[in-house]
Amino acid sequence: MLGFTLVELLVSISLLAISVGISSDIIVSLVRTFGRTQIFHDTEQTVNFLFLKLQNDLKNSLSSEVNLDGNELTMLRRNDVRITYTVTEDDPPNVTRQVGTGDPVNLIDTQSPIGGIRISCENGCFERVSTTPHSIRINMTFSQSTGIGLFDSEISIEDTFVLRGSY
Question: What pLDDT shows up at residue 39?
Fold first, then answer.
């Protein structure tokens, strides 16, 4: 005989269908895992950038002021330059940094490929702990703002800084 029987063809097609089904399930799972990991790393990178910038400005300041709702922090540097951080939890959420009378700069990319970041601050993002020496507590929580369930965890930063120039 010079060909395949119908049974041999059906068995080979069945085996091919089963292997394609199993491998496609694995590929879909890998793509989802990569997506979750990428979202977490992008969010973590944004939070680390913001936190290091804020930490550097705080440590090199002489004094600070926090507004009543706790979402604005103003620091006075050694060279009499004021730096103001403003957190908006609205849509779109953002953290801006303004040096002196210059234009505010957005520190969070609201058009990022991960769909943006949600910021929440319980009882204000900034709190003055003491005035001698000046101590500021930071309390912010970051999560994915799209709400599509790809990124269910949160990244929280809670820390207290003493302004070096205040003691």
Answer: 78
| Short-list 76, 98, 94, CA closest to 85 | 98
The span from the CA of 149 to the CA of 151, in Å, is 5
Residue listed under structure tokens 């604005």: 72
Q: What is the pLDDT of residues 2-26, one digit of tens each?
A: 788 989 999 999 999 999 999 998 9
The predicted pLDDT at position 93 comes to: 77
Rounded to 5°, angle at Cα 60 from 56 and 64: 100
Non-local (6+) Cβ contacts of 166 within 8 A are: 61, 62, 63, 132, 133, 134
The three-class DSSP label of residue 151 is coil
Write down the pLDDT at residue 23: 92
Spell out the alpha helix ranges (H) of the chain: 6-59
| Phi, psi angle pair for 12, to nearest 5° | -70, -40
Question: Which residue has 């050694």 as its token pair?
Answer: 78
Tokens of 16: 């091919």
The whole-model pTM stands at 0.74
Angle at 117 between CA 39 and CA 113, to 5 degrees: 50
What are the structure tokens assigned to 67, written together? 């507004």
